[in-house]
Write a structure and sequence with these properties.
The longest helix is centred in the first third of the chain and has 21 residues. A hairpin with a 4-residue loop joins β6 and β7. The N and C termini lie far apart (about 45 Å). The chain is built from 21 helices and eight strands. With about 450 residues, it is α/β, with parallel strands linked by helices. α19 runs antiparallel to α20.
Amino acid sequence: MDITRRIGEYVTHAGIEDFPPEAVIAAKGAIMDCLACMLAGSRESLTDILCRYVAAEGAAPAASVVGRGFRTSAANAALVNGAMAHALDYDDITHITKTHPTAVLLPAALAVSEETGATGQEMLLGYMAGFEVACGVGEALSEAYYDDLGWHPTGPLGAIGSAAAASKIMALDPEQTAMAISLAASQASGLRQNFGTMTKPFHAGDAARAGVVSARLVRDGFTASQDALEGRFGFIRAFSGGQGFNSEQVVENLQNKCYLVESGIEIKKYPCCGSAHLALDATFNLLSQGAIDPQAVDKIEVMVDFDPPRSLIHSRPMSSLEGKFSMQYCLAAALLDQRVGLQSFSDEQVLRTDAQSLIPRIDMRRIPGNEGKPSWTEGYNEVDVHLKDGTVLRQQAHRASSGALRGVTVEDILEKFRDCASQSLSETTAAEVLSRLDRLEEAEPISGLANLLRG
């Protein structure tokens, strides 16, 4: 089948002109959004720990750690920047692979671009090529990979995509690119059982690091197979649980699809697990019609388009991180505060008495009649609020299914960037970052942008 080798050829020959303008706009929007998440995440305690770790490594200063004022090796920068990008669970998602693509791809691409003196256009193209490869491989995997086997999709697929992105920016040839992807495949991992801890964002950083390390080692002569994706003991079969996969479709899809448009990138409006977002949209639609007294609520039924709990594994959260992966807390916060934002996720907010009182009255289940079917086949969530007087308030929210940039406008991303950047950058510096991002596809060295982002 020669899938890994042919992916290497795809990555090597990809050009910015191969992507429609809509895809380029979406990619730039995703990069801006991810940098916003990095800047906000740079103040998290997990970032403090990782920064102390990489500082102790004593690596040569080759790439910037966003918002932290220092440089380290490209691999270390990718690790820290990836973890901080995913730290708040505020970063983008793409539903065809149920992953957080940019939190892995951009840290790898940014670090390698700064280290090698690449331009903004080269970084952008590396990001886009990595996105397409990760989606192409992800679509070939079995449904069990996403729902039953316990893998966090962002980790394994992110390692594949980041290796492709790093290989493109380093200008590796097809054979080297295939080997870099194969080497990254042997480092791919991430378990959903760690959701609600610092390890979930570590998955993104570790996948970004794996891509950088793989491309650099292969560039220097390290070897790997050229069939690690499709082989009898390869990535696709292993992560599919041995059945339900279709390796042969990978190359065909890369040749005939543009995943940036067909799958699209969904920018998050809320800093919590994406599986809770449609239900939150439905809840806020209800609240826009009139306030709901939490004391008057008898129970809330949430019907979702996947078999619960999947990522929302904390039905009774006891910490801020667990709250991000709790449908019950997210909806409780929406009713209590009329909003869900960065301030919603602290231990104090999750443990407050009124939230803990409301949480047990919220139940999540699959839309009746669709239990056991593939995820998101219905494309909507429904929230039914049962009041103690017998009134039932019902609202649905439907998933966007078209367009490259989904859920928000470019102006929304700009506003989110300014809000997140205010924690780490001056207003003047943030404005200059936005100016450089606007002309990202031009031939300016990425080092200027990296210097600003370092803070």
